[in-house]
Recover the amino acids of this structure.
């Protein structure tokens, strides 16, 4: 099975079209966050999402933690996928689906310890996919992605084995370690931001190298 690739922190139509032209299946568009790279305005997220082919998954990353606020955030961006980067604390995934039945829901699991595995298995019954990252929402200033750190892949492997939905692996991936990551975790897809950037900008050569390691 060909591994899906999502490039996150897309900040312009130009970056989106470069990624798409090289064969990625998804792009990540970062809404307001307490920390981390790649944040752009909701208007720009909407503009970029409209600019790519309809077969590309456009992930809007939201740090909202209530169903109502997540729905409102989506209405401002109109992506085809919502990536929820924090724990849903008010309302349910079904509440979101009621208003957004055609939008895919992806929950981020910040892989910290064995509790993360239990959380992932529980949530997997309610969403379309999981994305395993290396943040820490328990810090005073929450880390909700874009850390550039690798987490414990053995825990990620357990999540893949114990769930029945697509699982994306994120966190510190680059062309040097992605083959090992795929071999150890067997994810549906991989997701990265800083690993294909130079001075904050998407680097097409780094992305080509990364994709070559993923697919060859």
């Amino acid at each position: 099975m060909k591994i899906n690739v999502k490039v996150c922190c897309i900040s312009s139509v130009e970056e989106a079209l470069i990624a798409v032209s090289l064969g990625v299946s998804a792009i990540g568009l970062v809404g307001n966050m307490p920390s981390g790279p790649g944040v752009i305005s909701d208007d720009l997220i909407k503009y970029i999402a409209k600019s790519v082919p309809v077969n590309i998954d456009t992930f809007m990353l939201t740090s909202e933690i209530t169903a109502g606020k997540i729905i409102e955030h989506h209405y401002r961006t109109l992506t085809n996928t919502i990536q929820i980067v924090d724990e849903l604390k008010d309302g349910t995934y079904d509440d979101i689906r009621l208003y957004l039945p055609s939008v895919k829901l992806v929950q981020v699991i910040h892989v910290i310890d064995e509790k993360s595995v239990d959380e992932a298995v529980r949530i997997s019954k309610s969403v379309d996919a999981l994305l395993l990252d290396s943040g820490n929402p328990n810090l005073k200033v929450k880390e909700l992605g874009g850390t550039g750190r690798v987490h414990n892949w053995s825990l990620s492997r357990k999540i893949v084995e114990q769930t029945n939905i697509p699982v994306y692996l994120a966190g510190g991936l680059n062309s040097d370690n992605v083959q090992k990551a795929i071999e150890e975790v067997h994810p549906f897809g991989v997701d990265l931001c800083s690993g294909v950037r130079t001075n904050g900008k998407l680097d097409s050569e780094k992305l080509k190298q990364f994709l070559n390691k993923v697919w060859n």
Q: What stands out?
A: The chain is about 35% helix and 20% strand. The mean pLDDT is 92. The CA atoms of residues 177 and 189 lie 14 Å apart.
